[in-house]
Amino acid sequence: MKQVVQNYKSGELAVLDVPVPGCKPGGVLVRSAYSLISTGTELMKVSEAGMSMLGKARSRPDQVAKVMQSVATNGVPATYRKVMGKLDSYTPLGYSLCGVVEQVGAGIDDVKVGDLVACAGNEHALHAELNWVPKNLYTPVPDGLAPRHAAFGTVGSIAMQGVRQGEPQLGEVALVIGLGLIGQLVVQLLAASGVRVVGADPDPARCELAERLGAAACGDPASAAVENAVAELTGGHGVDQVYLAAGGGSNQPVELAARLCRDRGRVVDIGKCRLDLPWNAYYEKELDVRFSRSYGPGRYDPEYELEGRDYPIGYVRWTERRNLACFLDLAARGKIDVEPLISHVADFDDAVETYRRLKDGELKAVTALFRYPEQAEEAGEAKAPAVAVPTVSVKPNPARSAKTPVKLAFVGAGNYATSMLLPHLAQRDGVELSTVVTTTALSAANAQRKFGFADATTDLDAVLGDKSIDAVFVVTRHSSHADLTRKALLAGKTVFVEKPLALTEDELAGVLAAVEESGNDRLQVGFNRRFAPLLQEARKQFGTRSGPASLRYLVNAGQLQHGSWYLQQGTEGSRFAGEGGHFIDTASWLLDADPVSVYAVAPSGNEDLQVVLRYPDGSTATISYVTTGAPGFPKETLDLVADGKVLRLDDFVRASVYGRKKWVSSRLPKARDKGQNAELAAFIKAVRTGGPMPVPLESLVATTAATLAVQTGLAGGAPVTLARAR
């Protein structure tokens, strides 16, 4: 098997082939899926290894003291050989991972082969393909928690133990100094405990991230911003607790803690920073200084960690294993969000280069993960039917001259094209309607006359071969969307295709294959609702959220007229397959994520559907797509609930947000604006500038896959996991 190792003497990092560890009694053999790179602890070790011998000695005075003691006891030659032998050898890296149980040792009955587990320990949760992990250093991963998120278990336990040492109470105010990985997790744990948090870090990006994840305010500790925020939140009394999650040689953190902590407050040291306590400041306030030891009770106790002897829960409520399980539970329920902390995911084979980039500062990361062979993740998530969400690489598109008009061709000129799209394009500056293509000459001629197309034709190949045409709109019947999109992409055109992108998984795969073959990823699907001005303003008024959300979307679709081609399900797909992507895309945009699973149920005898989407942070969206409602009731109503706030959308006529302040839009005086004009403006801008497409390709694919998964779920009667295929 392969493992990341380091030679502490030379500083060399390598991925070596090493023997597979045996599965001893009292533990399990785990095949890694993801392991977490500690950009604090591990990079400090990597940096130290690159120092001279004198530098190493200066950085580790505790080890120098041991060497001197050995010299006194064993003499210089023996000590030298011992020290050099230890330095000039490979040591492991890593201590937090998630993987799949491959073999179960004797005496283990709480997991079985194939179970997904989170593992801890700098001797047992290493950056290696396989690890033997004793019982008290692993815990099963809750259903629904992604392996990449479960890999945070150990660092989450470190943060959790620190918070427990601070004994936070509801309504208190805390200061977190240092907003690296541990600090970001401490912020979220405190916020989840009902504590208002102020963060201090010189990095503005980390401050912004902490505020997004629940901090009330953050700022540079050298500025007045932190002090002002503490004064405002505490009425000038000072914070109840300070958590030192910083590193380095500065004494500023402990001095800041003394200045901003209240009388008889608590100061908890979690990181590894300088601790020259200013005696007067700490004495006058009688501050309670506490230390947090790693993952929790049991750490460094070989009987607990290696022999599996647990502490009675009545005496030690939170051991390191129980902390690990607790953190995973919070993450699975969406109380803690680790996804924003993942700055980079690297293949395990690229470990050495990843460490180099981190060390040199080329790669800026709060957290980086190693991703192991694909079968590990798939085995851990094979608890429900899975639909693959294909992924493709994105390539840049060259910009064009701002003076050159964007030339468009339309394939199809039916009701939607002529009523919802072309009216917004016909008079737009910088746009030239070049050619319209239809299956019948008359419809093409009508579109040419009405909207001023330069040419009208029934020859699609001639349009695709015209190098002067920049973008092609596919606005035909659903069954032809995927094939026409594929052809236009292969011809090098930017493509706007009305929903749906595809009606089957094979069709979706064909479109993505065309992207890969041509290198052309310039694709937009007509999911216009996210561009609706009213919904955009409501989202802005709602603001950011820190906890999971619940979204309800009622679509009163109504009955179709007899003879509608939408009823031709054999060729054109179901109604939901045709337009359901609109509502899934809107929900995903509001929740700022792609769904990870879909569950659908339907009563017999009609086309009504209940679709439940689950998202990575624990948020859910329920789409009620009904055809049996009253015709006079609004078609689309939406409610989004999170963090004590509610967003309400009433059929794109009025919106409101309830929270600390109430916001209600004015009633729109004209027809509903569902975003087509803004969507087209964004699309044209992307074509003209060569900039990113209005909606990322990954999101378009994820929405399409989720829409297709509804039919899979109805047929199977079970939730469908949306697993990204590489």
TrEMBL record:
Keywords: Metal-binding, Oxidoreductase, Zinc. Transmembrane segments: none annotated. Residues 50-367 form the Enoyl reductase (ER) domain. Its cofactor is Zn(2+). The keyword Chaperone does not apply. InterPro entries: ADH-like_C, ER, Gfo/Idh/MocA-like_OxRdtase_N, GroES-like_sf, NAD(P)-bd_dom_sf. Belongs to the zinc-containing alcohol dehydrogenase family. This is Bi-domain-containing oxidoreductase.
